[in-house]
Structure formats: C-alpha cells, structure tokens
Amino acid sequence: MMFRYRVLSLVACLFPLLVGAQERGDLLIATEQITDEVFTETVILLLHYADDGAVGVAINRPTWVTTTELFPELEDAHSYRGPVFHGGPLAQATVLALSSSAQLAEGDREPIIAGVYMSSNLGLFESLVEETNDDAQLRFYAGHASWGPGQLDEEIASGAWRTATASASLIFDADPSSLWDRLMAPGAGMIVHASPAAAPQPAQAEMDRTLQEAYANAE
User: Fold this and answer.
1) 20 to 30 A Cα–Cα from 84, which one of 108, 199, 207, 208?
2) Where are the beta strands (DSSP E) in 178-219?
3) Class (C level, CATH) for 21-182+202-218
C-alpha cells in the first residue's frame, strides 16, 4: 500500500510537467472524444502557448472562399491559387498568413517552426502573393482558436487532444482535408497522395458563408 501511495505521489508531481510540455509549433490532433463540430477532426497548429493561455489555427480545414473575395483591394489576390482556411471560431474577420517567404525571415519575426513564419500584416499579403501564388509555401487562415490559462492542459490530460511536433511539410500538406485521418491512422507519417477535391458538403458550405459574412461585416 505504501508503494502505491509513493507511485501516486510521483505521478502527481510529474503531472504538470506531462501536460504542460506543449510549445509554440506543436500540433493538436483532435481525438474521437471531441464531438463538437467546431473542433471535430481538426489539426491545430499552436501559434502561442504560455501561462496566459494558448492560440492556434486549424490547418486542415480549407474552404471554398478565395483570397479575391477577402481582399478585393489587393491587385494580385486573384492570382493566388489556394483556398482560405477556416482557422477557428474566433475573430473570423481577422486573417493571418503562414509562409516560408524570405521576406518574413528577413524581419525580426520569430518562426513558428524552423522556416515557417506568421504575419497578420495586410500590407505584406500582396507582396507574399507576388512571391508565390499557390499554397505550397503560403496559406491564409480566417479566424483562430484560443484557450484560457490551464484550459488546454486540462483538455489534453482528459484525452481530447493528441500532440505532435509540426513540420513545414505538414503545415503545407498537399491534401489538408485528409491530414487528420492520416495522423490518426496506425503508421502515421507515410506518404499519401492527394485525393480529388470533393463537392462542398452542407457543413462546409455553411463554414464558407460564415467566413464571407464575418469579413463583409468587418469592412
């Protein structure tokens, strides 16, 4: 019995270290415990993780919204061939970019991970699109997800999320819609070819409308 108490005491001491080991640049992979459609089958990249909470964007939820719809004032927005991603349920009128652009590397910006930088500067978006007009190295996210102090740790401890280290190849994955399935499958990490794009589903169409309305109301 005494041995059992010692083991439990050791686990209690280690618990804050085990659940607080996340950091900026980690991936959160929703488990089957999450049934809320806002986060069901999402893969979230942590952009901020500290004592004051956490912030991230979903990297596997492309929409049918285009950059031309969001940024009609940007001359080169029409040349970008990637979709806008639904980053999360909060501040959906706010758009940020993740890019491997040397323009971002030249500034004082700290990379999210090695070689991948974040910007919410609308003034930079046009020059980023001029540099690369597809989503192989540049993606836009409308909205984000956030957690209060200790909230994400509790969710991870309860089994709601799995964690993994992000990489540029995962952030800019060629088939983001299937990323969750591949990361959750046995033998995750194997190369999977992108599947043909499917027609918009009702939930996807509603997500697209929400983004368009949020951005239009913010103008």
Assistant:
1) 108
2) none
3) alpha beta
